[in-house]
Write a structure and sequence with these properties.
This protein is of the alpha/beta class and 369 residues long. The protein is 49% helix and 26% strand.
């Protein structure tokens, strides 16, 4: 036995114990994490000595740090200072709730601090500052600033639900930031392929919306950003090709037993078989072109072919000789009849793969918007 194993095990357990008790976090000055780790350990083991020590040492430090940071933020002229104060007070309240739900921790900190009363006022001020930031961003009248404004209004509404016109401004900012894409109808194809459900099923970004021409008209869009069109280039299917090969098999199989010196031993017989294997293959190829065009300048933003090549195959065989010579997994082919591909199998499989590739192409293109 390796004489270092017990020592290594002891060190590992000691490190794990230190981490779970929060001692390491306390040493690093992460008072908030130290409290959470200690409380969690005491929830599992109310008498855990190290966790009691860590909680006793770190809780006041954590509260002092968060309260001091909150007061410093209030006294400063920093942007979004009230949002930072909300974060500090919510952390204080989280420690309060965690301790209250851990009997072992509650014995060490019987009167945890909370900031619920102060938080209501602070959230209103945070809602005001983020709402005003959203208004200022909207005034810059660019798409990127509209996106920023949207998230500011989302924050304002989260801090104080229904704050002023935060919901209405959120919707307006999102509309301004959204790329409006009109999907032009494709020409009817021989196989009646329709790719519109794929396009409208893609959700690459909350700031991209696809419209049919009718929907764009009904929505009264004054500005369209992109046009998307799918051109179906065609579908082809090969004639069946059949390849043949023969496999010879030899084996020894048990046929009986005989007694030698009062001991039964198996008797084997050599057997041979030939398997004539036929394989039928049919291949298909489908192709479409994805066009994405800038609605203002008319330039092609994307013009690329999407191709799907699929394959169907199956086998059958005739066998001669003693089939016991053929491996069991292969033997099941013996006597099978020539197979025929199910109707529309490759057409449907090709269309499905084109659907997948088209969805990926659209998600890749619009994912950054």
């Amino acid at each position: 036995m390796n004489r270092f194993l017990p020592l290594l095990t002891f060190i590992a357990i000691a490190l794990l114990d230190a981490c779970s008790s929060g001692k390491a976090a306390l040493k690093q000055g992460n008072y908030y994490d130290a409290v959470l780790q200690a409380v969690n350990r005491l929830r599992q083991n109310p008498d855990h000595k190290k966790s009691k020590e860590v909680l006793s040492s770190s809780y006041k430090l954590a509260i002092d740090y968060l309260e001091t940071d909150a007061q410093n933020q209030i006294a400063s002229n920093a942007n979004f200072k009230w949002s930072n104060v909300v974060q500090d007070y919510e952390q204080i309240n989280n420690l309060y709730e965690q301790i209250r739900t851990s009997p072992g921790a509650l014995k060490i900190i019987p009167n945890p601090v909370n900031k619920y009363k102060e938080l209501t006022d602070v959230k209103n001020k945070a809602a005001e500052e983020t709402y005003e930031a959203g208004i200022q961003a909207m005034l810059k009248n660019t798409r990127d600033d509209a996106k920023r404004a949207y998230f500011f209004f989302v924050d304002a509404n989260a801090y104080s639900p229904g704050y002023r016109e935060s919901i209405e401004m959120m919707e307006q900012a999102k509309f301004n930031a959204t790329i409006k894409v009109v999907v032009e109808p494709s020409l009817q194809s021989y196989y009646d392929w329709n790719f519109e459900p794929v396009i409208f099923g893609v959700n690459p970004s909350q700031f991209v919306k696809f419209y049919t021409p009718r929907q764009a008209e009904d929505a009264g869009l004054t500005k369209i950003d992109h046009f998307v069109k799918i051109v179906i280039n065609g579908y082809s299917e090969s004639r069946p090709t059949i390849t043949k090969k023969s496999e010879n098999y030899k084996d020894s199989v048990k046929v009986s037993e005989k007694t030698v010196n009062n001991v039964k031993v198996p008797v084997y017989e050599k057997v041979n078989a030939t398997m004539n294997i036929n394989e039928k293959v049919i291949t298909s190829r489908g192709s479409i072109t994805l066009y994405i065009r800038d609605a203002i300048g008319g330039a092609d933003l994307r013009n690329s072919d999407i191709i799907s090549e699929e394959r169907w195959s199956d086998r059958w065989a005739t066998c001669t000789g003693d089939q016991r010579a053929i491996p069991e997994g292969t033997r099941k082919l013996c006597g099978t009849k020539e197979p025929y591909m199910a109707r529309d199998f490759l057409i449907n499989k090709t269309k499905q793969e084109l659907d997948n590739k088209l969805a990926n192409a659209l998600s890749g293109f619009y994912g950054g918007y």
